[in-house]
Please model this.
Amino acid sequence: MSWKENSRAKLAIQAIVNIAEREGIAPCLCLQGTSLTVDSLFELDATISDSTEVAVIENAVAHLPKKAGYGIQAGQPLRLTNFGIWGLAVLTSPDVRSAFEAMSHFSELSSMLSKVKFRESQDQVAFVLEMSHLPESIHRFMFERYYATTVNFLKEVIPSYDISSFQIGLPFSDPVYEKQLGDMIRLKILPAQPNYSIIASKELLSTPFPSTDPLVHAHFIAECEGALRVQKQLPDHAQRIREFILNEKNFTPKLSEVAKLMFMSERTLKRRLQEEHHTFSEIVLSTKMTVARELLLTARLPVKVIAERLNYSESASFIRAFKKWWGTSPTEIENT
Model:
């Protein structure tokens, strides 16, 4: 878990504890059964696991009065910038569709505790929160928090967008809760739906974000891909080289330069990579091809522009390398 992601977990738990205190519930009851103390929530190096956050939410929900809104209150301080590279990949997306695709594809990195999916019909899209792996007792709280975070996100990237036509799907029928929630968020509540979902017009998916940098977005997408590989035991030296390429936007790095930054000789770095079944040139090419594909799919940049940004002297050289790596030409992907 990165510092940013751990920061999000602490913010989330601090919000829950504050809500409980306002309801006259002692913080120790929320933290019961965990290794956390109130003081530890403000320590920079305090590590909070997903299971700990779930336990705190369970404790709080068990003691709080049974009414709607606590999850919405808990979600108010959360912004996507608290979610590390996952949040930055979402925020720099060119439009809503790309943003939710990033949310879904990299949900393992989000520390949101749940997976986000979107399902399209002829004229609507449902943003679904998958919570089957979490205790049922906290589902309402988690969905409310997800709703608040989503609204915060939309207000941040497209402040002029009107969400008053949104509808909320609930997989149960509880008239009291439905009225409480509906009065609070001023949206239509649809009970007895297949999932917890936020339902909107399908046009929302194509809504562009006013300011986005395709190269920055591709960078964070590639960072997310790299982080996923790390979780799947990507060798350490290979990942460090990849991070150097992405952070410096240097797509033609020299082995000597990278070795120096890693405080080792070229020979030692070559040997370490060989032990990890990698070569320097393969790592460089892999990184370039990942960025290239994302620029084609999400930014829709011309092949010539991508070739230049990746330091290819000729578009033809880039096209050959791309086709050899991905098994298809960049033009074919560009036209999908």
Notes: The first strand starts at residue 115 and ends at 120.
